Amino acid sequence: MFSAEPCKAPGCSRQAVFQSEYCFFHLEDREEYLVEVRRYLSGRNTINNINLADVILEDIDLSGKEINYSNFSKSRFSRVNLANCKMNLVFLDRAFISHSTFHRSKLQWVVFAGSRIEFCDFTDSDTLRCNFTGVTSVETPFNGSDLYGCRFINSDLAGAQFKDCNLKRVQFQYARINDVDFRYSNREEAIFMENEA
After folding, report:
1. Which domains does the chain show, CATH number per domain?
2. Kind and range of the H or E element at 35?
3. Which of 102, 118, 120, 100 is nearest to 110 (CA)?
4. How would you label 128-159 residue by residue, b for 16+ Cβ within 10 Å and e otherwise?
5. Which of 4, 9, 68, 111 has the most other CB atoms within 10 Å of its CB?
6. pLDDT score of 95 more than 70
7. pTM, to two decimals
């Protein structure tokens, strides 16, 4: 798993970010740090065991990358290209993700819990056993995706699209489902009520 070293700033309870002794908020020069992070992420095909909690990633192409065992909790992704990406056990919880694509990605055990996901694209992806509990999703399509075992419990899914998806064992208990398209999906194999689990 990613490093869990505490931030060296007195009284700080956050974890130090990748290649630093400080959390993102206590870095001396955040802009320079983000330039270095972009360079690092862009220059590798495989990214393992990094902690980038609270970072801001904008206008970066990470398509085709493999990202494993990493922490992006409370981060901000804007216009990030993660198409054809492989992600395994990655924490994107309580993040703000907008105008980004996960098209044709292979995601497994990725935690999006508590995040706000708006105007993103998860179409034609293999999104297996991922945690979307408590997310707020705005105009985000999942069409053509395998969502086996995902959890959307207590999520707000305004305008989400689940057309032609595998919904086997997908949990939607207490989710607010407004204007959601489930056409051609196996909705009967999803779990919508607490007593169906």
Report:
1. 52-196 (2.160.20.80)
2. helix 30-42
3. 102
4. bebbbbbbbbbebbbbbbbbbbbbbbbbbbbe
5. 111
6. yes
7. 0.94
